[in-house]
Specification:
The complex is a heterodimer of chains A (342) and B (511).
Chain A: H1 11-17, H2 22-33, H3 39-43, H4 45-54, E1 62-66, H5 69-79, E2 86-90, E3 100-106, E4 109-112, H6 120-131, E5 144-148, E6 166-172, E7 175-183, E8 199-203, E9 209-215, E10 218-220, E11 231-234, H7 238-252, E12 256-264, E13 268-275, H8 281-286, H9 291-301, H10 309-319, H11 333-341
Antiparallel strand pairs in A: 1-5, 2-3, 2-5, 3-4, 6-7, 6-12, 7-8, 8-9, 9-10, 9-11, 12-13
Chain B: H1 2-26, E1 37-51, E2 56-62, E3 69-77, E4 82-87, E5 92-98, E6 104-115, H2 138-151, H3 156-168, H4 186-199, E7 204-211, E8 222-228, E9 233-236, E10 249-254, E11 260-263, E12 265-280, H5 281-291, H6 306-315, H7 318-332, H8 341-352, H9 354-378, H10 382-407, H11 420-460, H12 463-471, H13 475-487, H14 494-501, H15 504-507
Antiparallel strand pairs in B: 1-6, 1-12, 2-5, 2-11, 3-6, 4-5, 7-8, 7-10, 8-9
Classes of the chains: A alpha+beta (342), B alpha+beta (511).
């Protein structure tokens, strides 16, 4: 069937596959496990960072916070000190909006990720927009955070275009249940947004190897820009990452949580941000529904006190392992093609 | 208990809403259609007499509480007369008085009657009546007749009915024939029947009724008989013995007193004319409601001042639009800008009509976006930029109105009803989505908003639905129940079936 043709699937089949829809996510997971008073912990990235630091979890360094228009001038003086670049993000941003990544300098002009040099005044404007609440939910006045730019591990250089590949883990009641890596492409303009053409690849929770993914809703085994395989890539420090993701449960007290992590070349996994309403694209990237895994956690939690984070990470890695999916050369590639062309 | 809380609430809300709705439709006869009409009857009593020049009193019996009909409206035409109405037990007496009438005098009484089907005939039992003092041979004939009829009947009502039939078809030389002449008119028969029924100690009375025939100028009043069966007065046709009034018979007055009494008048006569009228059902019901003892209709939307009514006609449609939004977002999965922005757009479509509305909306939003992208270059702060967009939007609206007026498209003038602040916010949101997620997302969501607005308009502009919600606002409770029900929908959205349908190839890897 042609890819652009709308293709309908019976709800019953989706249910068997354990696919979770928006309504189920909202009613069964978010409204049950995420108490509203804990939302500020994840919606305010400054607060998240502070909580993570208090808990001894790794986060990108915070260079400074801009709260008023006056402070922009002071901050401008300091920016030149950050030779490796920096990231400006709104404290209350949603969906990755309003994040400006500067990855170095061209003389006195900051260079944007992707190579274009900017004027310093454009950076000022961006900060002013953030402060005026352009990117925050409901247009509330906001603060701008200036953060360390993560120098992500070079093993992903060949499978990401310009931007930062990040790893999203969904943590249910403290147990990591599913993870995916989002790889920016030329189409997605360096953004790790699946909707705009980034590649999403599922990750085997047992080994931390990628299992190949989906791009524009179609199966995808190579990065479209470099044509390098995206199957079987080993994510460095995977056990550490799983434990980090599991620990975010204590930090946020949210039972249905998205943890976004980047792998820094020097420091290993760092928490970028937390999300109280993680989306459902992770199921597409993994080619698997969330529901079965969530039911497994619920069954595991019956008559059991909460385990320490390391214990939970180990349990998840064991139960949700899918090592067979991480082999780079799959025998059934031909049959998949055949099924597709049929 | 917690599990059943919402279902119980939903059932309760729909039961109350539908119950009140059913009561208003069946008992009060409120129309379901916006253009429904109700049949009304104009009955006119014309009194004419020759004045003798002395102080004159005219007394006309007029209806008070009628079986099956209610009086929506009445009026008296009587120049130079003092008017006084006296309420008696069953009827009223219209009393006209004047000092020095000259020549022919004409007085009118007019009533607008509406058939409501409520027979209002329940009355306390007046008790058994005294047996009349018959002279022989009538006494023995009456007693024999009564005994005979009693043997062939089961209760008061059937007794009276059988008796009427016996008199109507009296064989010569039978007991019944003693009391009746074939030339007797209805009034005479009714009088005889009342006396015979009194012999059996049954209370009965005479009633003056009119047969409603459209366009008749002189309708002869008919005499009917009413028998009390200890619970209510049962009407019986004194000629045929039929029980109950036909639909076209309206009672005018009770008792055997004359309809018209005049002191110092000659050649007095009263004539009845009837005309059928068709009126807006809603207005009829409303006036009918005023005649009811119940204060139920006092608390209806129909009693609000007209301007407020028109406002509520629109406002009451908003919950419907909101429910459509819930449905389209949570069950279908359409993405829109702002949750309820499409409802507000749909409200303004009511004025511009759909096609013109969509064109104008698209025009303004596109032009606004162009301006917004230009403002981006000026690097303004958020709130001033929003204010600038609002000003630009209003200028655009004004420009389009003036231009279209010149070109003769009067429809575009309704543009002024567009919610401009909402438009400005939409433009702002759209431009942020455009920059952050690309034009495809922005346009998809823009079209989604328009489709939702058009769907909401389709329902909200429906005259039938508007009428239903306005006349029966209790239906909002049902809407509320449906919305609560939708609030618990955790199934897949229709768009998700396609979204996950397209990745079924990828899903197969794991099977």
């Amino acid at each position: 069937m042609r890819a652009w043709l709308p293709r309908f699937v019976r709800p019953k089949l989706l249910k068997e596959q354990g696919i979770v829809g928006m309504n189920t996510r909202n009613a069964r997971y978010i409204s049950v496990w995420n108490r509203r008073r804990f939302y500020p912990r994840v919606d305010d990235k400054l607060q998240t960072k502070q909580l993570a630091l208090d808990a001894g979890l790794s986060v990108p360094d915070l260079y400074g916070v801009v709260r008023t228009l006056r402070q922009i001038r002071d901050v401008r003086q300091q920016l030149r000190n950050y030779e490796d670049g920096f990231v400006i993000k709104p404290a209350h941003g949603a969906g990755g909006d309003g994040i400006l990544v500067i990855d170095g300098w061209r003389g006195d002009r900051p260079r944007r990720a992707g190579g274009r040099a900017m004027e310093l005044s454009e950076v000022d404007d961006h900060i002013a927009n953030v402060l005026s609440g352009m990117y925050s939910l409901g247009g509330q006045p906001d603060a701008a955070m200036i953060e360390q730019r993560v120098r992500f591990s070079s093993i992903f250089d060949e499978v990401s275009h310009q931007g930062v590949p990040d790893i999203r883990t969904v943590v249910y009641r403290g147990y990591p249940v599913m993870a995916m890596m989002r790889l920016p492409t030329h189409d997605s303009d360096g953004k790790a947004n699946l909707h705009q053409g980034a590649v999403g690849t599922g990750i085997d929770l047992g080994s931390g190897r990628t299992i190949g993914g989906v791009r524009y809703n179609r199966p995808c085994r190579e990065h479209p820009d470099s044509e390098k395989s995206i199957v079987g890539l080993q994510i460095p420090g995977w056990d550490q990452l799983m434990e980090l993701a599991a620990s975010c449960y204590e930090l946020s007290e949210l039972g249905y949580l998205g943890v976004d992590v980047v792998i820094d070349a020097d420091r290993g996994p760092l928490i970028l941000e937390l999300n109280a309403r993680p989306g459902l694209a992770i199921q597409i990237a993994n080619g698997e529904g969330l529901n079965h895994r969530i039911l497994a956690v619920d069954a595991h939690m019956v008559s059991r006190d909460i385990e320490p984070a390391a214990e939970r990470a180990r349990w998840s890695a064991e139960v949700f392992a899918r090592p067979e999916a991480t082999r780079p050369t799959e025998p059934d590639t031909e049959t998949t093609r055949a099924a597709e062309s049929a | 208990m917690k599990r059943f809380h919402l279902p119980i609430l939903i059932v309760l809300l729909s039961a109350i809403g539908l119950g009140v709705f059913a009561y208003k439709v069946s008992a009060l006869g409120m129309p379901l259609q916006p253009d429904a009409t109700a049949e009304t009857w104009q009955v006119e009593a014309r009194v004419r007499f020759q004045a003798t020049g002395e102080a004159t009193t005219v007394q006309l019996r007029i209806p008070h509480r009628l079986p099956n009909f209610s009086i929506l409206d009445e009026g008296f035409v009587s120049r130079g007369y003092g008017l006084n109405t006296i309420t008696q037990t069953e009827d009223r007496l219209a009393q006209w008085t004047t000092r020095q009438p000259r020549g022919e005098q004409v007085l009118y009484y007019r009533a607008t009657l509406y058939r409501d089907g409520n027979d209002r005939s329940e009355a306390d039992y007046p008790g058994p009546v005294a047996v009349p003092d018959w002279a022989e041979p009538f006494r023995s004939a009456a007693e024999a007749l009564i005994d005979d009829v009693r043997g062939r009947s089961s209760d008061i009502q059937s007794f009276a009915s059988v008796l009427v039939n016996d008199l109507a078809n009296a064989a010569p030389a039978s007991n019944a024939a003693v009391f009746i002449e074939s030339t007797d008119n209805r009034t005479r028969r009714a009088e005889t029947l009342i006396e015979l029924l009194a012999t059996a100690r049954i209370p009965a009375r005479q009633v003056t009724a009119l047969r409603l025939v459209d366009g008749r100028r002189d309708i002869e009043p008919q005499t009917w008989l009413e028998v009390h069966n200890t619970r209510r007065w049962v009407p019986i046709d004194p000629e045929s013995g039929e029980i109950e009034y036909p639909a076209d018979v309206v009672v005018w007055s009770h008792g055997d007193a004359p309809l018209l009494e005049i002191t110092h008048g000659e050649n007095a006569e009263v004539r009845f004319a009837v005309a059928r009228g068709v009126q807006d059902a809603l207005a009829t019901i409303q006036r009918f409601g005023d005649t009811l003892d119940s204060r139920f209709l006092d608390f209806s939307t129909l009693n609000l001042p007209l301007g407020t009514q028109n406002t509520y006609r629109v406002l009451l449609m908003v919950p419907l639009g909101a429910m459509i939004i819930v449905f389209l977002r949570n069950v279908i999965g359409v993405q829109t800008f702002g949750t309820f922005m499409p409802v507000l757009i749909a409200l303004s479509f009511r004025e511009t009509q759909l096609l013109a509305g969509i064109i104008l909306f698209t025009l303004i939003v596109s032009l606004g976006l162009v301006v917004r992208f230009y403002l981006e270059h000026l690097r303004l702060l958020l709130v001033p930029r929003l204010a600038a967009v609002v000003s630009v939007v209003i200028m655009l609206m004004l420009g389009i109105s003036i231009l279209s007026h010149q070109l003769g498209f009067e429809r575009a003038l309704a543009l002024s009803l567009f919610p401009m602040v909402i438009l400005a916010m939409t433009i702002e949101r759209m431009s942020v989505v455009w920059e952050e997620h690309g034009p495809a997302d922005a346009i998809t969501q823009g079209i989604g908003s328009l489709v939702v607005a058009a769907a909401a308009y389709g329902l909200m502009a429906n005259r039938q639905l508007e009428h239903l919600l306005f006349v029966f606002p209790e239906l909002l409770l049902v809407l509320l129940a449906v919305t609560l029900l939708l609030g618990r929908y955790t199934g897949y959205r229709l768009t998700e079936l396609f979204r996950f349908g397209r990745i079924q190839d990828a899903m197969r890897r794991t099977d």
